[in-house]
Design a protein that fits this description.
single chain; 7 helices; 2 strands; mainly alpha; about 5% strand; about 75% helix
């Protein structure tokens, strides 16, 4: 199961990179046409907002798996080993619970949007389920990745800071 979520998380992160590249091209094109005095791309702002929403939630599971989070080590470091492990388990349990709850809320909203057929109307109509889907997917897969830390041998805190920074 964890191999599948790892593969899916990596795929979603790659998809996000492509989406952000397209977003750069879209914003550049919109700025260029405005500078030339032409009519701006009417749907560019809405598309950029949706792209940023997707970019915030789709790579979440890959960030969890890759230990790409900020954490405060100076609080945990001076603790005795058993207390450090207890603190670590508490962090994992909290993260699993929060991510699972938010995934459930987003999935419920997504299902409700599918049933009701609601759309968000801006410069183009966006189905509301497509707004909630990346949120539900990102949090659901992230909760599984946090669970992997909880029940597995890998630790969020086993990071070599020099390797993480690319040195």
């Amino acid at each position: 199961m964890f191999a599948v979520t790892g593969w899916l998380g990596a795929w979603l992160a790659r998809l996000t990179v492509v989406a952000l590249g397209l977003l750069v091209l879209l914003v550049s094109a919109d700025v260029m046409v405005r500078t030339l005095g032409w009519r701006p791309i009417s749907w560019a702002t809405s598309a950029a907002e949706y792209a940023l929403l997707y970019a915030a939630f789709l790579p979440m599971p890959a960030l969890v798996r890759g230990k790409g989070h900020v954490f405060v080590e100076f609080i945990r470091a001076p603790m005795p080993a058993r207390m450090r492990r207890a603190c670590e388990v508490l962090v994992y349990l909290t993260c699993v619970a929060i991510c699972a709850y938010l995934a459930w809320v987003a999935a419920s909203l997504c299902i409700d949007a599918v049933r009701s057929g609601r759309y968000e109307t801006r410069t183009f109509d966006m189905p509301m389920w497509a707004v909630y889907l990346p949120i539900a997917l990102g949090f659901a897969l992230s909760s599984i990745e946090w669970l992997r830390f909880l029940i597995g041998r890998d630790s969020l805190y086993d990071v070599d800071p020099l390797k993480a920074e690319g040195y």
